[in-house]
Amino acid sequence: MFVSREEKKVELDPFAPIRILVVEDDDALREMIVELLDVIGRKPVACNSAESALAEMEREPADVVLSDIKMPGIDGVELMRRIRRSWPNTEVVMITAFATIEATLEALRHGALDLLIKPVRVEQIEKVVLRCEERVRFVRAHKDLRHTMSRLLELNNRKEQFAAIVNHELRTPTAVSYGLLQLLEKKSSQLPDDVTDLVTRAKESLGKLSEVVNDLGDLATATTDQQWIKPKPCRVSNIIVELEAASIEFKRVRKLDVAVSNLVDEDITINVDRRKLVRAVVELMRNAVKSTPDGGMIAVNVSISDGKLTFRVEDSGIGVAEAERERIFEPFYTTGDAINHHSSSCEEFGGCGIGIGLPLAKSVAVAHNGDLVCSQREGGGSRFDCHVDCR
What we know:
Elements: H1 5-8, E1 20-23, H2 27-39, E2 45-47, H3 50-59, E3 64-68, H4 76-86, E4 91-96, H5 101-109, E5 114-117, H6 122-186, H7 193-224, E6 232-235, H8 236-253, E7 257-262, E8 269-272, H9 274-291, E9 297-305, E10 308-315, H10 357-367, E11 371-376, E12 382-389
Parallel strand pairs: 1-2, 1-3, 3-4, 4-5, 7-9
Antiparallel strand pairs: 6-8, 9-10, 10-12, 11-12
Helix pairs in contact: 3-4, 6-7, 7-10, 8-9, 9-10
């Protein structure tokens, strides 16, 4: 049973040496072709019959086969048919002393890349071998690219599965634990002060964990549920109030100038999922906070045009490299030190989360028939434009 390259599952380097097989029953001609190949720096394997060539191919498939047509037993054309059937990526070049139109057409019809006429000259060998090698390397590179794309898709699917599983396994115990702490908190008057303090701190920490679990759940749902958002009429003023509250909190924890500017009539009613939309914009603000050193500025501008509501979040921070402006919206991708990030890094300069916030914000925008794009702010820093259809 022959073993093809696909069955071996060998990942080929496109620029690895090309294996050449010479098939010629005449000893003198076979040695001459081998010597010509040696002149151009190739080290072929030589066989004196089609039968031995097929055995060699089963042992280790060649990339290029140079074969005589007229041979006893299995001739060159039949050899080519078998090679093309079992090793379709192998390039075959036929060699003949009888250059007729019929012979040429027969060889090309069965898949020969070229037909060389005896006596073969070194420049002919070199030209056809280089052509074969170019085609072999192209096929190798294409297969390697397809393999890489397949692995990337597999890894992306695993990330989505991970988010869904973690959300499913953590949501219930987290909710139960949080509820038990709330019950303990209500009985704080019956507890020693040091225990009450521990309960309060545990509740705060569990609250942060609950936010991460909920974000994972939203992210998992966003990739599988077309009805992930629930648009309802709401006033723009309600959204502005929540964004201003978030700006006050960010200014409390960091020395930053955070301002919300509204260019939309606050009495206008729009049709959006208010909770998820506010969550998305707050994530953009939090990202700006982590990217901006103390003393910097963050501006949130709200505008509307042609039924599209736009939230522009700008900062004077370190900005986002052009090469990363698309990748930052991939789940779990981070630009900071993800390995050494810690729980207090949610708003610290240079802090790093787990790569959920921006992908979640992007999902919210897309679910509202909009988009989220990142660009460089004039004067330095980042600019995020979140567009949503509010009709």
